[in-house]
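Running this now, will post back.
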Amino acid sequence: MNAMNYEVEQKFAVDDQQALFDRLEMLGIRWSNTVRQEDAYFNHPSSDYAQTDEALRVRLDGKDAVFTYKGPRIDSTTKTRQELELQVTNPGTDGVSMKQFLKALGFTYVHSVVKRRRKGSLTYKGQSIEVALDDVESLGLFIELELVVAEQDIPAATTLLTELSQSLGLGNGITLGYLDLLLR
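Update: finished.
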């Protein structure tokens, strides 16, 4: 059995997009295309994910679709948590079958988050960092910095992302997910 991987993530609201782009370009970011993503969130039939700090979503990303489970956060300064993903090969164009699958198992639809995401990657202090610039409907513009690491590497990953965010002048991080922000 493989060791569990954890997603170590920091999220920030973006006030000055051009200044952020300039700093990222100086660090040699490599951008990919912007895609539309829809994340439909579901609640467990016998436990309230809002109370247990877990998440289950169906992500539609262009032609790709993924079931994602996110475990409870294990760090109060970042959004560090276990993340399990299952790619679906025939989701259809709008993921209806995936959503029906969860509903048939007793899961309850909660809400969807729709965003335009521009993905990028950069190397910082020898580590490859995933970057996402998200324009979230009804919320605004955010940047996420992410590393996926083994449990023993969480402290080093947290330190690295904190150093990177400070060098980018990002200020205070946001530990709430987009769903939480939309529901408030």
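The CA atoms of residues 161 and 178 lie 20 Å apart. More later if anyone needs it.
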